[in-house]
Amino acid sequence: MFFNGKPVDQVTEADLYDLITLGVEEGKTYDFKKNGYVPQSQDQDVIEPENDTKSKTGSRKWTWRDELCKDVSAFANTQGGWLVCGMDEAKGYAKELCGLGAIDPDAMINRIEEVIRSGVEPQIPPLVPKVVRLSDSNKGYAILIGVNRSFAGPHRVKANGQFYVRRSRRSDAMDLSELRAAFNLSESYIERIKQFRLQRIEALSGEEMNPDVPISLEEGPLLVQHLVPLASIDANDLIVLTNFEFARKAFDQNYLWSTLNHARHNFEGILIPFSYYDAHVPAKWYFQVFRSGVIEYAESLKDNFNKSVEEVTEVSLGFIESRSLSALNYSTRMLVNLGIQPPFVVLMSLLRVNGYKLLHQRSGFLSSFPYIQAKSVTKSKLIFPGYTLTDPAQDITAVMKPIFDIMWNTSGYHGSQSYNKNGIWNISRDWEVN
Fold first, then answer.
1. Hey, what long-range contacts does 250-254 have (CB within 8 A, 24 or more apart)?
2. pTM metric for this prediction
3. Which of 115-124, 229-238, 425-434 has the highest mean pLDDT?
4. Domains of the chain (ranges plus CATH)?
């Protein structure tokens, strides 16, 4: 997430003073809070503007917690924005970086996050906090609270059941037409993701090279996985892909680092292919980073190492899981390095699998797991439901379990054999980045 055009992790005190120098005004993306959300007492009341009748909570007093939920949900329901805690304003313009004094910034952030989790529904994407220590020790700290635009809304404040939107310098309750439009917009996001996925699957499904596929892949069944940032649905918000640094950081200290020797720009964005041999033969797999922020991963599942088998018709389920998790891990890191925040939708598909058997282990391999004589797949495409990754630190094995269970169901298993009875991943995590 970017603050005034700069990655938030690089923001310094000087950037906050720039808000004053440049005459930055509160509006749809900035809200200055002199005292932040530091109550004089645990249940300090917040006085609401008299003309904001829709924010009342009946007989219960309107507290700083309610005000926080109102401000955050309004940003999430509009286009995202920043709460700048420790900045005073005059007539809406940044006036003085006064700081929050001698506070425990981590405790304050934890309190804000907890209030939002319990006070807004449905849950909004994770907040993006940034603590800035000020050079004047008397001023202490300033805290930035970044709120990503949400594509899972609209969101409402539980205290009064109201939906808020950001208008100029104010957070106001939505009227009926705005509320109707917000719900319709959420439905359109789902449809646009669905259409994008189907278009990509259609391009990759054929045996012949399709001009919409960025590079020729080895023959055989394909694992195709898309990581779709919900923010990418806005066609106007294209990311600038000037170099490969975002991928270099994701692949650092890993054998995949060498794949960047073959990375190149293309019409769609950046292509990162991998071949066991050289760049002049069909690739084993690739990452395609689209300018919208979507990352497509495609890999041939054909076994190139078992040359004694004339026609390989078996694919290891465990291998598919491992490759899927590896791709998701790297894709998530690349998006974070690009400054793109969750939620991300994970979409996994298996293509060209008609006639193949999906087995726990390939025939002839030693296995301590029960062997089921699976029948050949009769569908050419297995398109699995999408699931949402809400936090880069989230356990991706938990996110992918429902998808993997369905995949194993295809071969007659009750669910993935890679999880224990409590649903916890219980085999090697060799796909993780060190």
1. 250/330, 250/333, 250/334, 250/337, 250/433, 251/330, 251/433, 253/434, 254/433, 254/434
2. 0.65
3. 115-124
4. 2-174 (3.30.950.30), 187-409 (no CATH)
